[in-house]
Each structure stands twice: as structure tokens, then as C-alpha cells.
Amino acid sequence: MIRSLLLLLVVLVQSLPAAARLPDEPTAKPPRDLQQIRDSGELRVLINQTRNTYSSVRGKPVGIENLRLEAFLAFLNQPRGGSTRSVSLKVIPLPKTRLLEAMQRGEGDLLVAGEVLEVPAQSSLVASQPIVRQVPLVFVTRQGQRRYKSIEQLAGRMVVLPYGSAAWPAIHRLNQQLRDLKQAPLMIKWAAPTLGPEDVLEMVAAGIYRLAVVELPVAERWAKVLPGLRIDRHLELERSGSLNWLMQADAPDLLASVNYFLRNYSPPKSADNAFRSAYRNQYKVHDPLTASAQRRLEKVRPVLQKYAAEQQFDWLLLAAIAYKESSLNPAARSPNGAIGLMQITPVAARAVGMSDFHSLDDNVQTSAKYLARIRRNFFSSPQMDERERQAFILAGYNLGPQRVQNLRTEARRQGLNPDQWFFQVERVAAEKFGLHTVTYVNSLNKYYQAFVEQRDFLEPPVKLLTSADQ
């Protein structure tokens, strides 16, 4: 009887559609040493997907690891006698939290995080010689904020950590010390996965976040283009990790080549020129939660809520657009003909059948309809994460939805995730069109995040019905 039931169960499972079955575990690929890499003609590099680590704008390298990796590739391709096959670079950007797992599965030959990444004791990965030894973890804040003399004075304060930050163990140890001193521990806020360390630093410089902990090399680099950022070097949290490249222990020749290269490599003095040029004059976010901004938002809140609800959007998304487009000013006009709170153009209005978009209600209604039209016609796939869908809609709002679809096609061709805007499709956008649309979406994402974190204060409490009201 039991055997018959088991056989029946096997038949039923096999008859299920593929989508209903449990996914198979990915098969780990065997590690490749230098000769196998040369034979294949391709060096697969898993990189931290942040803009700080590896990125380019219109062909110019702006990531901290771009030039180093390109120099290493040139080193591998140096003539050594015989007919050695040249090697090309295949960059695979992933979230920092997924890099070690992907490397263990053999998806890359080299792991380049651009930040401190601790390797578990039982891992099969080995680290190169340090690029930077004992990287300090430091507190950063906005220029003009109170200066604390010691870390102990930060007791009870809120500190933001970028997603996947190496600072968490150090914060945990500090909090234990504070408890032993009968002081309040630091409160931790993890930044959203759509925010890289560079985004957190921009939000700190704007005053949206008051305090964050990042690695000193990252803070120093972005302080060059974020004049509002202050690095409190004397508030050093810890020096517990080094900046390395990682590879499999079963690739000794690759390890030897990497170590030889790193010992002899010095970045050119002009290494950050393209980075400074690309980011110095980009739009910088402001604090959308100042007292005056909140007063302006409260005046237009009912209209934003009404038309957001009609089109099934979060009203705070419309609020973020309104802040970015007009600083929440319904009377705003731009030289290019955009009008009102949402800076609507006649072309956008005609696309959704709105002939009049000058009044506050009509202006917000037109914007909500136009966003909904982009979502319905271009980004309605159920496979898409909602935060990513929102980013694609905003990119389409700024660049044009068909252009964004073309970017997704190119991203797929390059091996990137076409359903992920942040750190994936945006790479193609930056390369093809520059940073304008990337910065536009990122700015709105920061404003939306700031609003969402204060939703309880921005939305009036729901009035509960009493017996007298009924």
C-alpha cells in the first residue's frame, strides 16, 4: 500500500508543470586556473554591482576597480613567447551579499568587491595580497553638524549602514561596550538594497540621513564630488579587514599572477579624473523633509493621494516626483514648456487625452495617467519586482519608455538582468546616454525612500468611527 502511494506521488510530481516544481540547485562549476582561463579566452570577474566599484559613463571608466582590472588584463595578455591566446574580460555585476555564494558555485574566476568582504573560515576561497591593509571604518555626517569628540558620545544615535556593509560586526562589538558602560547602544538602519554606499553618502551630505558608517577609501573618494559630506576620521570604528581580490584556492597560478601584478601596480595620478568629471556637476539631492518642504507637501497632499489612488500608485511616489520636478511648487514653469507641480509637457498631456493640465488637479491627474500608461504598455510583467518596476516607469517618464525597452534588450545581450534597473540596466543607460536618466531615477528613489521612512508623520492618522459618528 505504502509503495503504491509513493509511486503515485512520483507520477503526480513528474506531471506537474515545470514552474510548479521546486527549482534544482545550481550545479557548482569546477574552479579554473590560469591555463584554463587562457584556453577559454575569457576571465570571468564577479564584481560588486555598485557604481563605486566598477562602472563607466560614455566609455570613460569611473569605478574604483576599472583601471586596475584593465591593467591586470593587459598584464595577462603581454607577449610571453609562443602563441598564447589573448584573454578578454567578462564582468558579472552582482549584489555584494551574493558574491561569495556565486564564487563558490564557480560562476567567476576572480571576485572583486571594491570593499571589505570577509571570507568565512571554511571557505574554499583565498585572498590576494592586500590592495589596502586594515581599512578603517569611519563615521560620516553632513558639514555643519555637531562634532563629537568620541564614539561614546554617539550612544543612542541612529546610524545608517549601506546594504551588505562590513561594519555590522564592529557596530555589534561597540554596542556591547556601550552596554557595559550603561550607555544606550547605537540604533542601526540598513539602507535599502537599491542604494549603494555612494547613494547613502549623498543622502548624508544632503541631511536626509544624519550619520552613517562606511569604509574610509569610499568616503574619501566620494567626498571629492559631495562637498556637503564630512568625514570624521577621529571617530574610527575599527580596522578589521583589508581590501583584496578573491579566487579559488585550487587556482594557484592565478593567485601568483594576481599577487605579482598587485605588488607592482600603481594607479595613475589621473585615475579619478573621469570620475570627478562625470559626477561633479550632476544633480545633487536635497533634504525633502525640511519644515518648509513638509508644509508645501501638506498643501498638495490630498490631490496627490486622490490621483495616486485612482491609478494604483503610492502617493509618496508622486510626492517624490513633485519635489524633484518643481520643489512642490504648483506654479512652477520651465523654459522647455513644462508646467505645474509635476512639470507636465503638452506632449505628455496629449498622450493621455488631457487638453488642460494647468490647474493643480489636472496637472497631477495628467502625471498619474501618464505614469500608469507607461506601466500598462511597457512594464507590466509579473516577473518584475515592484521597486524595479517603479524605477523602469520613472526611467521611461524621463527618457521615453521605448528607449528604456531598448536598454533592457541590450542589457540582456550583455548578460545583465533586464528586469533590474538599479545597478544592471542603468549600466547600459550610463554608457549609452550618460548619467542624466540614471541620476534622475536615483534622485527620485532617494526622495521616495526618505518619504516612505517618514510615512507615519506625513499621512494624517485615520479617524476611527465612534458610536456618535454612526
Automatic annotation (TrEMBL):
GO terms for molecular function: peptidoglycan lytic transglycosylase activity. Residues 304-413 form the Transglycosylase SLT domain. PANTHER family: MEMBRANE-BOUND LYTIC MUREIN TRANSGLYCOSYLASE F (PTHR35936). One of its GO terms (cellular component) is cell outer membrane. Residues 1-20 form the signal peptide. Belongs to the transglycosylase Slt family. Belongs to the bacterial solute-binding protein 3 family. InterPro entries: Lysozyme-like_dom_sf, Transglyc_AS, Transglycosylase_SLT_dom_1. This is Membrane-bound lytic murein transglycosylase MltF. Coiled coil: none annotated. Keywords: Signal. One of its GO terms (biological process) is peptidoglycan catabolic process. It comes from Pseudomonas pohangensis. SUPFAM superfamilies: Lysozyme-like, Periplasmic binding protein-like II. It comes from the Bacteria.
